[in-house]
Amino acid sequence: MEHLKSLRDFIAALDAIGEIQPIDKEVDWRLELGAVARRTYELRAPAPLFNTITDIDEGFRVLSAPGGLSAQPGLTYSRIALALGLPADTGGAEIVTALADARRREPIPPVEVDRAAAPCKENVMKGDDVDLLKFPTPLIHDGDGGRYIQSFGMNIARTPDGAWTNWSINRMMLVDRNRLACLIPPPQHLGMIRAQWTERGEDMPVAVALGVEPGLPYVGGMPLPEGEDESHFLGAYFGEPLELVKAETVDLLVPATAEIVIEGYVSRTDLVEEGPMGEYPGYPDRGSHSPKPVLHVTAVTHRNDAILPVAVAGAPVEEDHTGWGLPHAAEMVHVLREAGVPVSACWGVLESAAHWWVVALKPSGHEDSGLGSKEMAQRVGEVVFGAGKLAFGVPKLLLVEHDFDIADPAQLIWAFASRAHPEHGEAHLAVLVEPGRPAPGPAASDPVGGLIGFGRCLARAKTARRASFSRQARWRGRRPRSGQLGDLAVVIPGVCRSTTLEKLGFPGFSALAAGTRG
């Protein structure tokens, strides 16, 4: 297992297998960058590394699609595999198993390194010198409420008593040179920690680390139980500690090799309008446009020629699905193992935008457990939907016997269509969409009935009601406006710019978009 300890090591590893596409042509941060990135997800083209960005000083760069899928035969999950130290040709189910197996290892705490050994300290801005506007923060979608600097980095916060440090990913929108608007849902771990600081009458210290070593976002997307430190788990996974360094103005440790680190305090009183944003289900998150807590920035450190990672949320498959789906499935395997369920594997169906989840039982599972199909479905549902943060992201659960590749959507559709009985192949468990989580589709905060299908395959969870929505509201900003499959037409105020992926350096991908991929 190779532990890549920086984003730059990760980029070099991707480049070695043809999964990076440098773009030297100037690209505008206003919609154009997001549109190009979105098209690369759809075509499974190499991850774009934008080297020249309109109105941004030379040297600052953007990497998008770091966790996207690949069109290269045998390398579908290569970006996720390399990020987690596995061979580039590792399959999705094998990645999930590797993460799940590490949950039974002893945690390994990080080590603190001297600032001289920390590249994130190459440039330091404090106080009045802080200027977030120098970074190439994109306006990602048409219709977004602002520019999102935090879409694939780590938010680091610690409880007031110092007992628990949490590493998570929550979106943050640029307000001005020294303020960010933060989405911090109260049920999530970051929200729980903020509540403890608020109870003390204090603002929450936080560090936002962007461009971290590539494994960190995957454990940040893993629903570890309350009180467990994600950095300790990643140490256990790699068998060696992460390297951290003291922040400048808050009492936290941050990744030594991070490209950018933003430090400050999330106010317990100050609010500012945030959102909407095109989100991971593939719809505008219309209900999220509201006043949100303000992060007052006290310091920023960054590497020379810093690289900002950007995830372009939307229709699958992108980092919200891979960075959440695979680690979530791994935790599902772990909790089912611990509960004595004869689980063979679990999977988050990436193409479902993290709305379908699969539990595959060992073929001998019924005999080993002594449970019939209906009882097994009930047991699996009780364990998964009762597993705290794990249940937070599981609206629909499919229960199958593991006699096909559950990571192959074609095989899964076949099994579901041919095996799930429409009358007695379901088990319903009442659950709710938790506050702060975008509900499936456009209907926010609708109750959802957790459903376990059984027999040989299982089924769905049904929303209690669905709001009507227009086609424009559904797709606006989630995909680039395309005249032809291989073309991009990006509307920028005062500018009309059109291009093709080939003009940006992606050889052959306009032809691929036209349907010539073998």
From TrEMBL:
<feature type="binding site">
    <location>
        <position position="222"/>
    </location>
    <ligand>
        <name>K(+)</name>
    </ligand>
</feature>
<feature type="domain" description="3-octaprenyl-4-hydroxybenzoate carboxy-lyase-like C-terminal">
    <location>
        <begin position="322"/>
        <end position="426"/>
    </location>
</feature>
<feature type="domain" description="3-octaprenyl-4-hydroxybenzoate carboxy-lyase-like N-terminal">
    <location>
        <begin position="11"/>
        <end position="99"/>
    </location>
</feature>
<dbReference type="InterPro" id="IPR049383">
    <property type="entry name" value="UbiD-like_N"/>
</dbReference>
<feature type="binding site">
    <location>
        <position position="171"/>
    </location>
    <ligand>
        <name>prenylated FMN</name>
    </ligand>
</feature>
<feature type="binding site">
    <location>
        <position position="230"/>
    </location>
    <ligand>
        <name>Mn(2+)</name>
    </ligand>
</feature>
<feature type="binding site">
    <location>
        <position position="167"/>
    </location>
    <ligand>
        <name>K(+)</name>
    </ligand>
</feature>
<feature type="domain" description="3-octaprenyl-4-hydroxybenzoate carboxy-lyase-like Rift-related">
    <location>
        <begin position="112"/>
        <end position="316"/>
    </location>
</feature>
<feature type="binding site">
    <location>
        <position position="189"/>
    </location>
    <ligand>
        <name>prenylated FMN</name>
    </ligand>
</feature>
<protein>
    <recommendedName>
        <fullName>Pyrrole-2-carboxylic acid decarboxylase</fullName>
        <ecNumber>4.1.1.93</ecNumber>
    </recommendedName>
</protein>
<dbReference type="InterPro" id="IPR002830">
    <property type="entry name" value="UbiD"/>
</dbReference>
<dbReference type="Pfam" id="PF20695">
    <property type="entry name" value="UbiD_N"/>
</dbReference>
<keyword id="KW-0456">Lyase</keyword>
<dbReference type="Pfam" id="PF20696">
    <property type="entry name" value="UbiD_C"/>
</dbReference>
<keyword id="KW-0210">Decarboxylase</keyword>
<keyword id="KW-0058">Aromatic hydrocarbons catabolism</keyword>
<keyword id="KW-0464">Manganese</keyword>
<feature type="active site" description="Proton donor">
    <location>
        <position position="279"/>
    </location>
</feature>
<keyword id="KW-0479">Metal-binding</keyword>
<feature type="binding site">
    <location>
        <position position="189"/>
    </location>
    <ligand>
        <name>Mn(2+)</name>
    </ligand>
</feature>
<feature type="binding site">
    <location>
        <position position="230"/>
    </location>
    <ligand>
        <name>K(+)</name>
    </ligand>
</feature>
<keyword id="KW-0285">Flavoprotein</keyword>
<comment type="function">
    <text>Catalyzes the prenyl-FMN-dependent decarboxylation of pyrrole-2-carboxylate (P2C). Can also catalyze the carboxylation of pyrrole in the presence of elevated concentrations of CO(2) or bicarbonate.</text>
</comment>
<comment type="subunit">
    <text>Homodimer.</text>
</comment>
<dbReference type="Pfam" id="PF01977">
    <property type="entry name" value="UbiD"/>
</dbReference>
<feature type="binding site">
    <location>
        <position position="188"/>
    </location>
    <ligand>
        <name>prenylated FMN</name>
    </ligand>
</feature>
<feature type="binding site">
    <location>
        <position position="230"/>
    </location>
    <ligand>
        <name>prenylated FMN</name>
    </ligand>
</feature>
<dbReference type="InterPro" id="IPR032903">
    <property type="entry name" value="FDC-like"/>
</dbReference>
<keyword id="KW-0630">Potassium</keyword>
<keyword id="KW-0288">FMN</keyword>
<dbReference type="InterPro" id="IPR048304">
    <property type="entry name" value="UbiD_Rift_dom"/>
</dbReference>
<dbReference type="InterPro" id="IPR049381">
    <property type="entry name" value="UbiD-like_C"/>
</dbReference>
<comment type="similarity">
    <text>Belongs to the UbiD family. UbiD-like/FDC subfamily.</text>
</comment>
